[in-house]
């Protein structure tokens, strides 16, 4: 017997991960579900907006795609966050329609490929064996083994939707943290570092200039650790605020987005930028440490600052730390990146907007498609655990 | 006797439009309460750039008369953000007794929220108009309008305009300088200096970077310590005035007075632009000062600052305030002046002259369109 399975990852990170694990999935299916069946796995990248706000519509689209391609089962893997009654949703499953949606952010930062492939396998099993009474419980125990920090619960969605089984994380706080870190990861902050070249060079030039004067030397010697940390925080916060302001990365209230998700997007943007700034800060620190040890002679430094000659490495570390903070604060604030596109791509709101345009474009050719869908708040009823 | 009266509000765009939006709902209740509860009051409003573009009041009256006929309104109230003069006195309101047109010049009401002030003025002037014509039985005459001009009462005069032979009642503000000052405040308020401030945010960043660089060095600390408060104040004044002057020059916000047909109005526009800018730049200056105060208190340890300034003990908050003060001025002069503002259009829209010309263009365009349709 042959079964066709369609995997529909969203563009960017999910597509990358799914393409890497698609081959292993077949083996996993044979082992876990049934070796009697010839599993045929197909991957098609699909653009959906807001699985969270538009879960119903996404479900319909997945079903549509399933029919178009003649798949037996279809699973969409999205990078969009999804909440139901403030609990993080891992997956929505419709056993009647043979489709499922997995929300990748709920897997947290550094989503392990093994874990994702297990989740896909288990959902496929659920779809394949949904007539057997024991399968749900079995799947539950298996899923729970994968999510060790918080219990996964199975709930019944209450809003009028296709979904009939929904998996949520029981702990609201852990779920929120997981989704947040998962979203920051999905933003792939490391990809934007290249766009900060101009700011980095500017900061570096400023820092080197500062470090050849004696006042910063004296400052670095007299600083307490708490002052070092405050200055570092000030420079990083200043930098993040500046980038957000200069490139208009803050999403303002619109009628289109639920405020819950808008807030989440904004928090994600801030954290992502903090990560980027932290990496830049670290790079600057290393660069300054190297160049300061070349530029600043030990003897003169000790003479100017009245320091003992024995702690030269500590002196250099201190001076590099101070210079890194200062260079960011007085060098990089006010500068802009060259390719605004790149920096915007690491924010959810921007990618969302782009995908929305793509969909609009597709819908224009599709005459009977409905584009005015406001999104429904997800709710569910919690079952008694047995 | 008529059972219902239609009152039409005609507002110039932006400020007056917002105002009309706010009062249109409340006005009928006020009218019932204060003038007559025997009739039904209906209030409608429309926005017309003409109200804010007219060169003379006569033009306005003709336009208003046409609108009144077109809409079949019984009374028409024009709200304009333009300053109007009657023989060098600031005019708050003009009531055309023959045409039932009331004109209210918003800048004459000075700084602050206009909703209640204008509501009362409309009631008062309408009452006045009704009294003259004897259409309705009046409630006892209130003195609502006097309350709006607490410092100097307005003077009510009767005039007959030669051109149209219409009888007018005019409310003027006495003495002349008080009226002028009120107009200046009201017009500055209409310019919305805080909106202009939003286009200065990029400048804040540049100024901050420049000043922050200076904060690292002892020269700045020592200078700010040595400077007297007088000197620091003088530098502040130079920075703020310099910055305002630069914005005016760079964006050509100054109206040439020599070529202007209405010299007094042009002069008033320029004065308003200046005061708007001074307020916006002062707010900017305070923001930069607070940023520097925060940065300097983290950047410079009190002990080291005390040693450098050769104080007997660690530095106090006063030393930090002086450093931030000096840094704010210096960064404005060396960093901010010359930097391009965020959006040219926002800056220009914050001036009377520019808005005026824009509206005039709009009016001409509309008329041209109409002519085309007619022919």
The count of domains of chain B is: 2
Range of helix content of chain A: 55-70%
Strand content of chain A: 5-15%
Helix run count of chain B:
15
Proportion of beta-strand residues of chain B: 5-15%
| Topology order of chain B in helix (H) and strand (E) letters | EHHEHEEEEHHEEHHHHHHHHHH
Summarize the structure.
The complex is a heterodimer of chains A (386) and B (375). Chain A has 386 residues and is of the alpha/beta class. Chain A has 13 helices and nine strands.
Structural write-up:
The complex is a heterodimer of chains A (386) and B (375). Chain A is α/β, with parallel strands linked by helices and 386 residues long. Chain A is 55% helix and 13% strand. Chain A has two domains: 2-171, 3-Layer(aba) Sandwich (Collagenase (Catalytic Domain)); 187-359, no CATH class. The longest helix of chain A is centred in the C-terminal third of the chain and has 37 residues, at 259-295. Chain A is elongated and about 85 Å long. Chain A starts with a strand and ends with a strand. By secondary structure, chain B is of the alpha/beta class. Chain B has two domains: 4-182, Collagenase (Catalytic Domain) (3-Layer(aba) Sandwich), CATH 3.40.390; 192-365, no CATH class. In chain B, helix 8 (201-215) packs across helix 11 and helix 10 crosses helix 11 (263-299). The longest helix of chain B has 37 residues, at 263-299. The model of chain B is unreliable at 135-142 (pLDDT under 50). The chains are: A alpha/beta (386), B alpha/beta (375). The interface between A and B is medium-sized, with 23 and 20 residues.
């Amino acid at each position: 017997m042959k079964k066709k399975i369609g995997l529909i990852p969203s563009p960017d990170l999910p597509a990358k991960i799914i393409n890497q694990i698609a081959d292993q999935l077949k083996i996993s299916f044979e082992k876990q579900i049934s070796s009697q069946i010839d599993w045929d796995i197909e991957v098609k990248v699909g653009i959906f907006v807001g699985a969270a706000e538009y879960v119903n519509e996404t479900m319909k689209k997945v079903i549509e795609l399933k029919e178009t391609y003649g798949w037996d089962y279809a699973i969409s893997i999205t990078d969009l966050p999804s909440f139901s009654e403030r609990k993080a949703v891992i997956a929505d499953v419709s056993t009647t329609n043979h489709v499922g949606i997995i929300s990748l952010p709920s897997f947290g930062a550094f989503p392990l490929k093994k874990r994702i492939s297990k989740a896909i396998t288990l959902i496929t099993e659920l779809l394949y064996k949904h007539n057997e009474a024991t399968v749900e419980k079995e799947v539950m125990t298996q899923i729970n083994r994968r999510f060790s920090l918080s219990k996964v619960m199975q709930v019944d969605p209450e809003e009028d939707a296709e979904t009939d089984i929904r998996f949520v994380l029981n702990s609201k706080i852990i779920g929120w943290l997981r989704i947040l870190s998962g979203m920051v990861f999905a933003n792939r902050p490391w990809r934007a570092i290249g766009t900060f070249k101009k700011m980095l060079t500017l900061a570096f030039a400023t820092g080197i200039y500062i470090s050849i004067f004696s006042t910063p030397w004296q400052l670095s010697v007299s600083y307490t650790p708490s002052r070092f940390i405050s200055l570092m925080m000030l420079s990083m916060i200043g930098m993040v605020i500046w980038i957000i302001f200069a490139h208009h990365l803050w999403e303002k209230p619109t009628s289109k987005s639920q405020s819950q998700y808008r807030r989440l997007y904004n928090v994600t943007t801030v954290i992502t930028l903090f990560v980027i700034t932290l990496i830049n800060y670290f790079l600057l620190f290393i660069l300054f440490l190297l160049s300061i040890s070349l530029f600043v002679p030990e003897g003169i430094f000790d003479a100017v600052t009245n320091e003992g000659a024995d702690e030269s490495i500590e002196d250099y570390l201190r001076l590099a730390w101070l210079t890194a903070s200062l260079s960011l604060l007085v060098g990089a604030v006010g500068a802009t990146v060259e390719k605004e596109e790149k920096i915007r791509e690491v924010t959810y709101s921007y990618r969302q907007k782009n995908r929305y345009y793509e969909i609009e474009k597709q819908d224009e050719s599709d005459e009977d498609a409905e584009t005015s869908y406001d999104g429904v708040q997800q709710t569910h009823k919690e079952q008694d655990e047995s | 006797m008529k059972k219902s009266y239609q009152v039409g509000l005609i507002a110039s765009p932006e400020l007056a439009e917002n105002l009309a939006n706010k009062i249109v709902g409340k006005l009928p209740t006020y009218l019932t309460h204060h003038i007559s509860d025997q009739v039904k009051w209906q209030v409608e409003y429309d926005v017309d750039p003409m109200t804010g573009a007219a060169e003379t009041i006569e033009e306005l009256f003709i336009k208003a008369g046409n609108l009144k006929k077109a809409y079949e309104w019984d009374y028409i109230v024009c709200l304009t953000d333009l300053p109007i003069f009657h023989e060098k006195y600031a005019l708050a309101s003009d009531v055309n007794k023959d045409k039932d047109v009331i004109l209210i010049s918003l800048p004459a009401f000075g700084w602050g929220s206009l909703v209640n002030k204008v509501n009362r003025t409309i009631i008062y002037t309408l009452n006045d108009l009704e009294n003259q014509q004897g259409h309705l039985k009046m409630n006892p005459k209130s003195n609502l309008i006097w309350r709006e001009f607490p410092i100097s009462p307005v003077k009510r005069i009767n005039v007959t305009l030669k051109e149209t032979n219409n009888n007018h009642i005019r409310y003027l503000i006495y003495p002349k300088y008080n009226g002028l000052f009120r107009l200046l405040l009201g017009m500055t308020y209409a310019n919305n200096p805080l909106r202009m401030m939003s286009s200065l945010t990029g400048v804040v960043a540049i100024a901050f970077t420049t000043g922050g660089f200076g904060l690292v060095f002892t020269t700045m600390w020592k200078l700010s310590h040595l400077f007297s408060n007088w000197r620091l104040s003088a530098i502040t004044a130079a920075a703020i005035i310099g910055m305002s002057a630069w914005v005016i020059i760079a964006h050509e916000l100054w109206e040439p007075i020599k070529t202007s047909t209405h010299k007094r109005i042009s002069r008033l526009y320029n004065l308003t632009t200046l005061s708007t800018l001074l307020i916006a730049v002062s707010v900017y200056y305070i923001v930069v000062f607070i940023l520097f105060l925060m940065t300097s208190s983290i950047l410079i340890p009190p002990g080291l600052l005390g040693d450098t300034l050769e104080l007997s003990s660690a530095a106090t908050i006063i030393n930090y305030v002086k450093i931030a003060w000096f840094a704010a001025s210096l960064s404005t002069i060396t960093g901010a002046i010359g930097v391009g503002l965020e959006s040219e259009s926002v800056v220009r829209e914050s001036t009377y002259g520019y808005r005026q010309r824009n509206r005039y263009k709009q009016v001409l365009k509309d008329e041209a369109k109409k002519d085309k349709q007619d022919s």
